[in-house]
Amino acid sequence: MTRRIQTLLVASVLTLVMVVVGLWLPVPFVQLSPGPVTNTLGQAGDKPLIEISGRRTYPTTGKLELTTVEEIPKLSLVAAVRGWLNSRTAIVPRDLIQPPGSSEQDVQRQNTAAMLDSQDQATAAALKQLGIAPSGRDVVVSQVNPGSPADGHLRPRDVIVSVDGAAVTTQDGLRAAVTQVRPGARLTVGYKRDGAAGQAVLTTAASRDDSGKAMIGVVTVEKATYPFTVNIRLTDVGGPSAGLMFALGIVDLLTPGPLTGGATIAGTGTIDAAGAIGPIGGIQQKLLGARQSGATAFLVPSGNCADARASAPAGMRLLKVDTLSAAIGDLDAIRANPKATVPTC
Fold this sequence. Notes:
The chain is of the alpha+beta class. Helix content is 32%, strand content 30%.
């Protein structure tokens, strides 16, 4: 065997090895596939997913199912190609899911905060729809910044009630109480967690925006309170897209008769406290998950209608919705007459 042939053989083997290795190297894409479907009228473990205490609730039937998307964030080239060829999955650039400069932990924290906020917005929208006015407001922790003074002491959903013994009733009041001291000063923050009172002694740090001002490292929201409690139990799901289905579940439990008429209705959509419904991502995968669960109709934010029409499973009725009141009106009409004419995609 000549030296030239040996060189060609070695080069060929090396090229083949590089190609094979390259097929299994990670690529900057994420796979989206149908995720779990959860009945908001059902159970979370041994307790109701939506539990209302201090107010009369009514028995109901049927299902109001929130839909999710499962993400596989780390793909090889082989897995990405396989996903492209699978009609049940979508392959999207990772930057759409995880913005440049952020970590997977950052995205997870943001998704958790968005889910908790969606539960609060859904509660406010549902009770507004029913004409139930707030009785007050709380300052609620939505996010604790990693490595901040509050990290390990406060948690999302803690209600901050005082700083150094002075009552806190607004976000502005909390900000003023913290920034009146110098960085490095100690503050005693009073809070409520799951109804129980607690205190955290925090050593303030310098604000990133102004090194002369103190901070404790929490993001807060002002949340309306009511003369009864609504507790939503949902874990391992992030993002704001379940808001509409949470709101419908709350309305169903607080009004006589089943909102679904005993049917299985799935859906998705963000919601704000005024009841406005917004579009979401992953509508194709959510529709497939709904079909697997046995849903016959799907509540679609109007902004998602075009994609929903293009990928709707056969026989799935797509109900176009923009507001909570419209969604309830559509379900009322269908319950009275399954062939009723309602807005569709």
